[in-house]
Amino acid sequence: MGIATTNPATGETLKTFDALSDQDLEIKLDRAQQTFLEYRHIPIAQKAIWLTCAAEILEQERDRLGKLMTLEMGKPLKAAIAEVEKSASVCRFYADNAADFLADVPIMTDATQSFVRYQPLGVILAVMPWNFPFWQVFRFAAPALMAGNVGLLKHASNVPQSALAIEEILHRSGFPMGAFQTLLIGADKVAGIVADDRIKAATLTGSEPAGISLATIAGQHLKKVVLELGGSDPFIVMPSADLEAAVSTAVTARMINSGQSCIAAKRFIVAETIADEFTQRLVQKYSALKVGDPMLPDTEIGPLATPNILKDIDQQVQEAVKQGAKVLIGGQPIDRPGNFYAPTILSEIAIGSPAESEEIFGPVALLFRVPDLDAAIHRANDSPFGLGASAWTTDPTERDRLVNEIEAGSVFINSMVKSDPRLPFGGIKRSGYGRELGREGIHEFVNIKTVWQK
Predict the structure, then answer these.
(1) So which residues are the catalytic ones?
(2) DSSP 8-state code for residue 20
(3) Of 60, 108, 213, 252, which is the most buried if we count CB atoms within 10 A?
């Protein structure tokens, strides 16, 4: 894929960019390293001032930045503006809390004094996806910069203007020019950058193959990585649940970002006794969704980000149907310019079919009926993924079992899965490892140094 802004609602390529030459890339790497040597010593209070300024810019310019995001990757404008606001919130969170998170931790031992000190690692490479082009970057950049690290961003090639805008915002906020730099490069350059001695760690949000590739390269050079990969999140509904709230949330949880979210609910696991009513209500709400121009304020579902994603989604749906799945609504691309796919619900999915185990990264819901809680938990865990899970019940015993037995990095009871700056976020199994956000997130890219003094 070339580095370009292509409007997914029309297919029109609006702007193209030349990739960095090897010489230009070397200049940026050297600038990052030289900046780190001084930046690590800047007081945390000063970094907090700069990060708060970044939050203010994001809030003041949210409409402009939201439109840029929508233009490049197609999410409805209202959601894009909300993403900019959420990016501001993570900046404020770490500006307000990083000093506490990074403070020395005294520990009583046989020493006169012993404690843990958190110190920055150096230059961190962030390989980020197109689906949340601002939020994914800022949830890395805010803690990394507050910890004293410097960042290099390799963003997805279809959101170059978003990548450059983020760099500009941080520089306008006061951060040194080398503290955060965008690298307009292809994926073929990532291995060489990770291998470079100046790079101390890397983080990636993206597909499982991309995560495996980065982890393999980093492992060869003994460098730490944090990976947030795919998900096929279960959404479990038990008979005691508030059914209307569950159905309404189910639509939002599946259709966030037009279905293009790792933590979107994808597998709806519903108790048999309420499955008919849940299904009927879900189909009704799907049929009312407004698909269209993502720039219009009443649009709920925009286009998929690229033609290839549209093609892949349709192939997955058609294969599921061939193997016996029933289409309750949708099931095909929409006949109009752009990468639009109809909101889709599949039921009666064959056991062992790819639809059971693959992540479907678009507006497609998979419905499963189960007889009881044991079967629901088994079905939820019968997946190679373990990112998040949503479960609906008012029974305390069921709640406790769901919290304890679901295999996922997060479990939300009577709510959809969402990331929050105050809470650690990440997955297990093939959904990756490591954590972002919260206190745990800022500790991923620091030297946790033990100090012992007699």
Answers:
(1) 228, 262
(2) P
(3) 213
Give mean pLDDT, residues 340-368: 94
Give me 411's structure tokens: 């479990």
Q: What are phi and psi of 152, to 5 degrees?
A: -120, 130
- The CA distance from 222 to 229, in Å, is 20
**CA–CA separation, 375 and 381 (whole Å):** 10
DSSP character string of 178-223: TTEEE----GGGHHHHHHSTTEEEEEEES-HHHHHHHHHHHHHTT-
Residue 286 belongs to domain with CATH number: 3.40.309.10
List the structure tokens of 332. Answer: 């095909």
Sequence-distant (6+) residues with CB within 8 A of 243 are 237, 274, 277, 278, 281
Is 319 part of any domain? Answer: yes
Q: pTM here? A: 0.97
Domain of 348 in residue numbering reads as: 233-420
Q: Same domain, yes or no, for 44 and 132?
A: yes
110 and 246 assigned to the same domain: no
Whether the pLDDT of residue 1 is over 70: the answer is no
Q: Which CATH number goes with the domain that contains 180?
A: 3.40.605.10
pLDDT attached to residue 351: 85
Q: What is the pLDDT of residue 356?
A: 86
